């Protein structure tokens, strides 16, 4: 009776997760489908298309892993054998979360390099290096995220072989690994995201200000304003999401 009540308590969370996963699958599958259809029609593939498609696939996998975790947590609520299963699902979820953060940061950097009108040598060098090697950076993001997830698993396995006299050392290693995971998985990508977003918004602001001062009526500034609003809204959304 207690198990059935516990399962019912998790039922509302499972329903919410299923609604989120269905909405996420529909939105991201639409974006991916549009890009794939355009590629089949012979349209040139841009670096932004690569990142957006990869980010859409990763977010779809994140929704699936989150729903699976809630379902498994409800089913194996009182099972002693659920530890390994929940760890595996949690690791897969963390992997795609790290990939999402990394790809979001990469997308922001690429957009900043392509749209901003800075003309310094460093900026032009980064534009040529990163924009034309986007596929390699996507692969590096996935590999780095996988390493960031699997290193703690090896540490946990090794901790099981230690005796009690090594308990303190094991806790210290776990704390170091936690700091490493947060730094590599979230903090460093967040720095690149915020810097590139601020630079992009600043560049667009100064560019629109110059065009307004020139009073060239043939230039439509609505497109620039739309991009600036999009950058600002995404900046606020990602800031709130990271704080949560």
TrEMBL record:
Annotated Gene Ontology cellular components are:
membrane
Topology in the lipid bilayer:
Multi-pass membrane protein
Ranges that cross the membrane = 14-40, 52-72, 92-113, 134-156, 176-205
Asked if the keyword ATP-binding belongs to this entry, the reply reads no
What does the UniProt keyword field contain?
A: G-protein coupled receptor, Membrane, Receptor, Sensory transduction, Taste, Transducer, Transmembrane, Transmembrane helix
PANTHER family, per database record: TASTE RECEPTOR TYPE 2, TASTE RECEPTOR TYPE 2 MEMBER 40
Q: What is this protein called?
A: Taste receptor type 2 member 40
